[in-house]
Write a structure and sequence with these properties.
With 360 residues, the chain is α/β, with parallel strands linked by helices. Helix 1 runs parallel beside helix 2 and helix 6 packs parallel to helix 7. The longest helix is centred in the last third of the chain and has 23 residues. The protein binds iron/sulfur cluster (3 copies). The site of one iron/sulfur cluster (SF4) has 12 residues, from helix 11. The site of one iron/sulfur cluster has 12 residues, from helix 11.
């Protein structure tokens, strides 16, 4: 079973696009271990925990304790366990990287490349890129495949592709770009046109690097290409089943954006998941998005993400126009890139034609 553990609502940075309400609320060790027990009690051979914040490393002791607890339980019961964590890196050091690597914690670093000092600031508004430089070296030494998670704001979109390239040259082979979708983010026809050109620029970079020793795996593209090549369409969300969220107080919700909403509460770590409630939420999430019926790219579009829809439109089945437009820009560019790699007979591309590697 997979669970997201919301270890803290607090953060040591103040990124300009952050939508979190920072509060000094933390999960207790007892609650975290109960969440682990709940996941293992489901009886699945594999268990996964996303260590989530705010900034999860503010709760480093809790992370170490819960990972040891889950790893011990997995070893005793002959089950698999894995952990994922996205951090802003400010508190990441070699001791923790040793621990993370020993316990199989896959770390992603939030980093905006050339835009880091424009968008990602400390609480007092200071820049963060310089202080992260040694952290980047350490992370890549311990986890060479670590993903750099970039966010782009509408006002800075013209530097997106250069930032992706900066992250690649800095040593990240896997980069993901998230769009700042906040309602007041300011996307308009002009910035969307720039976004399209920026994606084209990143596609050209991917194409140039694809057959080199260290190709750039730009996850925005590869997730779309792999879904097509591996015939694994993304048709549904499985809200409440795929990755329920555990709030700091131990209450369970269907996914991140539904945290602390009483209407979506579906149990807690002590009494377990209310199956009838969970089933009702799954059923609700399976209804189609009316605006997407008949769309030719629906099988690879994120229109089904209840979290994204709910956070942008207040309805899990209503897709925000900016999100629809983004998918209409991204998917054809990803397809064109795949077409060019195929046409030039890229051995790596052909080898991966039916493999899963592109999506990783
Ligand atoms: S590091 Fe994450 S949680 Fe913290 S301010 Fe930035 S976006 Fe928000
Ligand atoms: S591109 Fe737009 S209409 Fe098509 S599936 Fe995605 S959100 Fe729906
Ligand atoms: S709401 Fe989005 S993030 Fe959550 S399970 Fe569904 S698709 Fe995944």
């Amino acid at each position: 079973m997979n669970l997201t553990l919301h270890l803290t609502a607090d953060c040591n940075l103040r990124c300009r696009y952050c939508y979190e309400t920072h509060r000094r609320v933390r999960m207790s060790e007892e609650t975290a271990k109960q969440a682990v027990d709940l996941a293992f009690a489901a009886g699945h051979p594999k268990n996964g925990f996303s260590l989530f914040g705010g900034e999860p490393l503010l709760e480093r002791g809790l992370i170490e304790s819960v990972c040891r607890y889950a790893s011990d339980r997995a070893a005793r019961e002959g089950k698999a366990v894995r952990f994922k964590m996205t951090t802003n890196g400010a508190l990441l050091d070699e001791d923790f990287l040793r621990f993370a690597t020993a316990h199989g914690i896959e770390i992603a670093l939030s980093h905006d490349g050339l835009l880091q000092d424009v968008q990602r600031l400390t609480r007092d508004g200071s820049p963060t890129r310089e202080t992260l430089e040694p952290v980047v070296d350490l992370l890549l030494a311990y986890q060479p495949n670590a993903v750099a998670m970039q966010t782009v704001m509408a006002e800075n979109v013209g530097r997106m592709a250069d930032s992706v390239e900066w992250l690649y040259r800095r040593g990240f082979s896997r980069v993901n770009t998230a769009i700042d979708y906040r309602p007041d983010a300011g996307w308009d026809d002009g910035s969307m046109a720039v976004l399209r050109a920026q994606y084209e620029q990143v596609a050209a970079l991917c194409e140039r690097q694809f057959d080199t020793e260290r190709p750039l795996r730009y996850l925005n593209f590869w997730s779309k290409i792999a879904a097509y090549l591996n015939n694994r369409p993304c048709l549904e969300c499985k809200l409440g089943v795929r990755q329920p969220s555990v709030a700091p107080d131990g209450t369970i919700y269907p996914c991140n954006q539904f945290l602390n909403l009483p209407d979506y509460r579906m149990g807690d770590v002590t009494s377990g998941i209310d199956k009838a409630r969970q089933w009702a939420i799954v059923q609700k999430s399976l209804a189609p998005e009316p605006d997407c019926l008949g769309c030719a790219i629906a099988d690879r579009c994120r229109h089904h993400c209840a979290c994204l829809n709910f956070s942008l439109t207040g309805d899990m089945h209503t897709v925000a126009p900016v999100q629809c437009e983004h998918e209409r820009i991204l998917i054809p560019i990803a397809d064109a890139l795949a077409g060019r790699l195929y046409a030039r007979g890229s051995v790596r591309f052909l080898q991966q034609y039916t493999g899963d590697e592109l999506a990783q």
